[in-house]
Amino acid sequence: MPSLTKSFAVAAVVMMSITSSAGFGQHRPDERRAVPPAHNSLPPRVLVDCPTAATLPRASFDVHVRDFAGGGLLTAINVGLHRRLTLGVSYGGTGVLGEQKAEWQDHPEFEAKYLVVPETMTFPAVTVGFASQGYGPYLEVWDRYTYKSKGFYAVASKAFHTYAWATGFHGGLNYSLEHTKDNDPSPDFFFGFDINVNRDVALVTEYDLGLNDDRKRDDKSVDEADTETIEFGGKGRGYLNIGLRWIFYERLELGIDLKNVLNNRRDVNQLSRELRINYYEFF
User: Fold this and answer.
1) b/e for 57-69, b at 16 or more Cβ within 10 A?
2) For the segment 24-83, what is each residue's pLDDT rounded down to a tens digit?
3) Is residue 21 in some structural domain?
4) CA-CA to 57 of 20 to 30 Å: which in 21, 26, 227, 271?
5) What residue numbers bound the domain in which 59 lies?
6) Is 136 within a domain?
7) What whole-number distance in Å separates Cα of residue 152 and Cα of residue 181?
8) Short-list 271, 213, 210, CA closest to 242
């Protein structure tokens, strides 16, 4: 009996050792969060308005705040439910900043983003998603945002690293649902890049062909007695946007954007200057 008891004890110790070394009940190595990644170690999930193929890490979230023309303010919250799936909700309005009366969106907008193919050494990451949030003031007469939401989209991203630089290239296509009144349901294409100047500063650039926003329209006054009309819509040049990102500290990113650099909009004759703040954290 003593020898049998001793054998059982040895077997128990061996099993406990095997279980411990196998990480029983623990996350997989790629999901451990003992040291959460800092902001500057993550690829951008959006350039300026265009998405990339990157998703949030599992059990993380970010809070994104940006301003826009007309005293507008937009806030978005995104959550990484899985290392491949990110969900988000956003809400904002015009006149939030300044002295004018605030006009809020009729309802929140949503985004869902799923990483279909992870990036490898030779193949880009591929993501599909849906985003109902457009940018700029909402135009009631056209039932759309100034810059249309992406709607359904697919995007591919590939990162390249050199001795001193880290660069990402991105390209995608989308189909916006904001075309019921402007009658421009064309699919659209976009591409861009991001480049890290150093660990804390990055430059992002995107070009949206604007194929679903390249027709001349007349934005008629609500007052029918007023015959004045305002031309609206893209000029066919596409939308070139440029942004600068600064990691203020490992969880906080500050940014400034220059939008409509090619002066594509018919209703304005200059580019738009916007600020943004992004805070990223784990649960």
Assistant:
1) bbbbbbebebbbb
2) 333 333 444 455 676 667 899 999 999 999 999 999 999 999 999 999 999 999 999 999
3) no
4) 21
5) 30-282
6) yes
7) 19
8) 271
Q: What is the pTM of this model?
A: 0.82
Residues in the chain: 283
**What's the CA dihedral at 33, 41, 249, 168 to 10 degrees?**
-150
Domain count, the chain: 1
Return the SS3 of 8: helix
**Whether the Cβ atoms of residue 134 and residue 113 lie closer than 8 Å to each other:** no
* DSSP codes of every residue in 155-202: EEEEEEE-SS-EEEEEEEEEE-S--TTT-----EEEEEEEEESSSSEE
Is residue 229 within 8 A of residue 220, CB to CB? The reply is yes
The DSSP bridge partners found for residue 229 are: 220
Give the ranges where the chain is alpha helix by DSSP (H): 2-21
Convert the pLDDT of each residue in 75-124 to its tens digit.
999 999 999 999 999 999 999 999 889 999 999 999 999 999 999 999 99
